[in-house]
Specification:
35% of the residues lie in helices and 31% in strands. The protein is built from six helices and eight strands. A six-stranded mixed β-sheet has the order 1-2-8-7-6-5. The model has no long low-confidence stretch (mean pLDDT 80).
C-alpha cells in the first residue's frame, strides 16, 4: 500500500537507525521523540547536540503558531506549534525540523516530534499562514495575538511571501499611536 508520510510514537522516534533508513529511502516522516532526545541544531549561536526540551525553551514567543490538531470529542483542538531547523547532512529538496506542540492553557505540556520532509514546506507557508491568522485576530479585536502572529510571519524568514511583507507593514501600523478623531 503506498503512503506519503510515516508517523510514529517515541518508540519509533528514538530509533535513530529507523530514521536514517527512512531518510535514505526518501520517506518523509513525523516521529514523536522524548524531551531528552539530543538533536543537532544551533542554540545560542552554537552548533551542537541539544535536547529537544532545551531547543523548545529557547524559542521566542513569536515562534509559536496556534493551529488546529483536528476535531476531538469536545470540538476543534487548538495547540501552539513551533519548529526549529535541525542541522543534518540532508540534501535538497529534503530538510529536518524539530516540531514542538504546546498546550495553550498549560504551557509546560509539550510534545516533541522530529520531522524529515520536503524543504519547500517551510518559511513561505509559515509566513502566509501567520499573516492570515494575524488578520483573523485583528478582526476579532485581539491585537496582542495579531501582533504575535505578525511577528511569527516576519520571524519565519519567508521573505518572498506576501504574508511576510504585509506583516511587516501591519506591525509598523500597530506600533503607531492611535490618532484622535
Amino acid at each position: 500500500m503506498p503512503f506519503a508520510w510515516v508517523l510514529g510514537d517515541e518508540v519509533y522516534g528514538s530509533d535513530r537507525r529507523l530514521r536514517r533508513d527512512l531518510e535514505q529511502q526518501e520517506r518523509p516522516f513525523v516521529l514523536a521523540i522524548r524531551s531528552n532526545e539530543k538533536l543537532w541544531a544551533m542554540l545560542d549561536d552554537k552548533m551542537g547536540q541539544h535536547t529537544a526540551a532545551a531547543l523548545a525553551t529557547a524559542l521566542p514567543e513569536a515562534a509559536w503558531l496556534p493551529l488546529s490538531a483536528g476535531a476531538g470529542a469536545k470540538g476543534e483542538r487548538f495547540y501552539n506549534w513551533a519548529r526549529v531547523r535541525l542541522m543534518r547532512l540532508q540534501q535538497p529538496p529534503w530538510d529536518h525540523w524539530l516540531l514542538v506542540r504546546r498546550h495553550p492553557g498549560k504551557p509546560d505540556q509539550l510534545a516533541y516530534y522530529v520531522v524529515f520532509g520536503p524543504a519547500d514546506t517551510s518559511d513561505v507557508s509559515v509566513a502566509t499562514l501567520s499573516y492570515g491568522l494575524g488578520n483573523w485576530y485583528l478582526l476579532k479585536g485581539d491585537t496582542a495575538r495579531a501582533r504575535a502572529a505578525f511577528e511569527r510571519a516576519v520571524a519565519s524568514g519567508g521573505w518572498p511571501a506576501f504574508g511576510f511583507i504585509a506583516a511587516e507593514q501591519d506591525l509598523r501600523r500597530l506600533a503607531r499611536p492611535k490618532r484622535k478623531r
